Amino acid sequence: VLQFARQEPTAKWVDDLNPTIRRATGLVRQYVHDRGGALELTLSDERLPLLMSPIGLEQVVINLVRNAAESDEGGVNVVVRTESDGGQAVLSVADDGRGIPADQRGRVLDPFYTTRLHEGGTGLGLSVVHGVVTDHGGVLSVDRVVGGGTRFEIRLPLQDDE
Predict the structure, then answer these.
(1) pTM
(2) DSSP state letter for 37
(3) Of 11, 16, 39, whose CA–CA distance to 26 is shortest?
(4) Nearest of 78, 80, 115 to residue 97 by alpha carbon
(5) Strand pairing class (150-157; 139-144)
(6) Which of 100-129 are b and which e, b meaning 16 or more Cβ less than 10 Å from the residue's Cβ?
């Protein structure tokens, strides 16, 4: 968070996105389960080489999955997926929770914006996600899932596999 607040670039090297995402989901799987939900992971069959900070992208996944798990008290199912699309790695985190109302979707990435102030939310999680994605030359979008829930999609530029 301090690095994000200072807007300092992080050290990066070319590495495969998939093992990083596998590690991150392993760290939050029990958290989702303890809240009554389930976590599904679907990784691309191909390598997704990125110029990346693995720790930064792990934090992105952890924040997105935790937010999803906390979005509904009844237990939320979360799907984390990676794939390749036209020179980009696509990382998505989707849930079947209550979703983000349209009037709030444009604000959820703002620092200190939270709907969970009474639960101790700081409003920094999604802002940090946005900062890390931007630092990686990526684009973050958020959409409502048909039938309920939210989907965050991150597009990151693929690198030559060295």
Answers:
(1) 0.83
(2) -
(3) 39
(4) 78
(5) antiparallel
(6) beeeeeeebbeeebbeeeeeeeebbbbbbb
Q: Is 86 exposed, middle or buried (0-12, 13-18, 19+ CB in 10 A)?
A: exposed
Residues 6+ apart with CB under 8 A from 107: 113
Assigned architecture for domain 2-157: 2-Layer Sandwich (3.30)
Pick from 29, 27, 100, 98: nearest CA to 57: 27
Q: Rounded to whole angstroms, how far apart are CA atoms 70 and 66? A: 6
Looking at the chain, the number of H-run helices and the number of E-run strands are 5, 7
Distance CA 29, CA 39 (A): 6
pLDDT number for residue 44: 98
Half-sphere exposure at residue 6, Cβ-oriented, CA atoms within 13 angstroms: 6
Between helix 17-34 and helix 54-69 the angle, nearest 10°, is: 30
The predicted-structure confidence for 96-142, as pLDDT tens digits, reads as follows 987 665 666 565 555 444 555 445 444 455 777 888 998 999 999 98
Q: Which two tokens stand for residue 15?
A: 């590495």
Q: Which residue, chain included where needed, has tokens 């959820």?
A: 108
Q: Tell me, what amino acid is at 34?
A: D
Each domain of the chain, given as residue ranges in start order, spans 2-157
